[in-house]
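Colleagues,

Please find the record for the two-part complex below.
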Amino acid sequence: MIRITRKIEFSAAHFYHNPNLSAEENHRVFGKCNNPRGHGHNYALEVTIAGEPDPTTGMVLDLKELKEILQREVMDRMDHRHLNYEVPELAGLIPTCENIATVIWKLLEPKITSGKLDRIRLYESPDLFVDCTAASTNGAGSRK
Amino acid sequence: MNLSLTRRYRFSASHRLDTPQFSEAENRRVYGKCNNPYGHGHNYALEVTVTGPVDPATGMIANLVELDPFVEQEVIGPFDHKYLNEEIAEFQSLVPTTENVCREIFRRLEKFSAARLERVRIEETSKNSFEIARDN
């Protein structure tokens, strides 16, 4: 099996706030991420597809096709947007790295028709990232 | 689908690879320039990976408001700008190779109660990295 990975970068604004908590609790739980005016990040997303290369093309998945899927599903939805207000899939969710990665996984998985979505790694900054892995792989996070 | 969160930290420390189980000549042969009696140092990068359910109230596996001070207290505070051989009690009788540093940091961080520690990975330099994952 071969794994191929493509990386994209997008920039977006967000803040953390749970309407079920008081203002004090929100501040205690979320710290500076609770600033209601929001703040932003340069997100980096690595998308890994696993599969056997097609004998004719020698490719697991045409990277041009993957690029178009990522443009449509992720860039058009999230780049230069406010994640709290402008992404319907995140409505009602706190736009943490965990929730954004889960939404991206669900958007991408059905669109990958050649090979299988194996892992996505979403960096909020160089010092913080979340991995989503397919249930059957042995990467970090797959163990119960 | 499985989810994990990884946070990256940095610390700088010195160490010397030397074991009383070897003679002076053997230590020099086995550890090479890492055996320099005055020690030497690295800028370590530490990756801490946790897993667990995403709390619906916070949208998080682990809240950095809790994880960062815990790692600071258990590892960064004690290790940063220190001589590991003498200033970390566990390394007074154990060679502070990055393998052993990985184990010691995993042991310290395993006490984090809000999520499950899955993996510790350390870059000793940009060329060498070491990692320890939880045994199943």
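The first strand of chain A starts at residue 2 and ends at 14.

Comments are welcome before we finalize the supplementary table.
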